Automatic annotation (TrEMBL):
Cross-referenced Gene3D superfamilies: Aldolase class I (3.20.20.70)
Stored SUPFAM superfamilies: FMN-linked oxidoreductases
Protein name (record): FMN-linked oxidoreductase
A molecular-function term among this protein's GO annotations: NADPH dehydrogenase activity
UniProt feature coiled coil, ranges: none
Region (Disordered): 146-166
PANTHER family for this protein: NADH OXIDOREDUCTASE-RELATED (PTHR22893), NADPH DEHYDROGENASE 2-RELATED (PTHR22893:SF91)
Residue stretches making up the NADH:flavin oxidoreductase/NADH oxidase N-terminal domain: 29-366
Length: 404
């Protein structure tokens, strides 16, 4: 019995799926790629997707083990775990997981062990909320801070009421340095204690790092504001701190140059100079950086042309880049982008509802529709409905290489 045949038999019994190296020609989306220290079997990535299933103390719920293990059943898959708070003081959403306490770390270790047992890999997304926090959800005494005393007027958290009175305090320079340290501690907890393969800094969607990057939010008058280099200083410093603890190959970042999912504030008139500078600095300072994760400009009025992020690709070169946004309903677009731009493609909604997404995409199997009402509720619950009860497709009559 050949090793390939034996692996196929094992895969069938374990209900996970194998892409044989003999498959030729393979679509670019299903070609192997090295990301940091890990070798992926394909380029379909689980995007970080907040589900708010942790306890009130930020401890990952036991059902989260099954959730991530299900989506790791195709060996060599990269999962990016949901946004996770770097420290208690960085919070302000209920039932969001953390990575600062021993109990949180132990719970995450169960998840990473389950993912690795299926032959896949997992990064943790690190989050600090800044002005997007809800003060009523913060622990008493924790400071409500941002780059500047500029409030958020629109609802940022799904189902929440608009904020009208909560104005953050501008962080002191000492607090900015402290936060870089908190990111580094969280990264060390994730990689060295909880078993993650790396960490991704959430510098998108209006959270704290972006509150320094955007000139429409950052109104400081010190070395962290004004010029592009000053506005990027906090992000670059926290990346340096993380890389010093876990290494640059295990360090990554997510960016949203064009807009926030919550549509708060008015974006920069031209984000290209800021993000061009930032990406070039990351490239030059960390030649072995894990990856850059970019949210595309996918939410545009009908008939309008989305803005391109190709300028980031040109600066970043042949290093790993993950593209996210709008691919759940555009299978052909994902295949085309992977082929033409050599990107990895991140999916949130489609991966939530289709734990066997890589195989479905490869074979053109119709995708299940997720229950939007269950994306974030019930908070802190172990209810599998809309979470771990999505069906796996029966691939028993076909291999993932497409042969009968």
């Amino acid at each position: 019995m050949t090793a390939t045949l034996l692996l196929h038999i094992m895969a069938r019994r374990a209900k996970w799926y194998y892409f044989p190296a003999s498959m030729s020609p393979r679509p670019a989306l299903f070609q192997s790629i090295k990301v940091g220290d890990i070798q992926l079997n394909h380029r379909v990535v689980l995007a970080p997707s907040s589900r708010f299933r942790a306890t009130v103390d930020g401890i990952p719920n036991l059902i989260m083990v099954e959730y991530y293990a299900q989506r790791a059943r195709v060996p060599g898959t990269l999962l990016i775990a949901e946004a996770t708070l770097i420290a208690r003081k960085a919070g302000g959403f209920r039932h969001m997981p953390g990575i600062w306490s021993p109990k949180q770390i132990a719970a995450w270790k169960q998840i990473t062990d389950a993912v690795h047992a299926n032959g896949s890999f997992i990064f943790l997304q690190l989050l600090a909320l800044g002005r997007t926090a809800y003060v009523e959800h913060m622990a008493p005494g924790d400071p409500f801070v941002s780059s500047s005393p500029k409030k958020v007027d629109t609802p940022f958290h799904r189902g929440a009421a608009p904020r009208t009175d909560d104005v953050p305090r501008a962080m002191t320079t000492d607090e900015i340095k402290e936060y870089s340290g908190l990111y580094a501690i969280a990264a060390g907890n994730a990689v060295h204690k909880a078993g993650f393969d790396g960490v991704e800094v959430h510098a998108a969607n209006g959270y704290l790092p972006e509150q320094f990057l955007w000139d429409t939010v950052n109104e400081r008058t010190d070395e962290y504001s004004g010029s592009i280099g000053n506005r990027a200083r906090f992000v670059l410093e926290l990346l340096e701190a993380i890389a010093a603890v876990v290494g640059p190959t295990k360090t990554a970042i997510r960016l949203s140059p064009w807009r926030h999912w919550a549509k708060i504030d008015i974006g920069m008139t031209d984000p290209k100079p800021t993000y061009s500078f930032l990406v070039q600095e990351i490239r030059d300072r960390h030649p072995d950086f894990g990856y850059i994760h970019v949210i595309e400009d996918c939410d545009v009025p009908e008939g309008s042309q989305p803005a391109s992020t190709d300028y980031i690709r040109e600066i970043w070169g042949k290093r790993p880049l993950i593209s996210a946004g709008g691919y759940s309903n555009d299978r052909e677009g994902a295949f085309r982008v992977a082929e033409e731009k050599d990107d990895l493609i991140a999916y949130s909604r489609a991966f939530i509802a289709n734990p066997d997404l890589p195989c479905r995409l490869l074979h053109g199997v119709p995708l299940l529709e997720g229950d939007e009402k269950k994306w974030y509720e019930p908070y802190g619950s172990s209810d599998p409905t809309g979470y771990t009860d999505y069906a796996f497709y029966d691939f028993s009559s076909v291999n993932c290489d497409g042969s009968p």
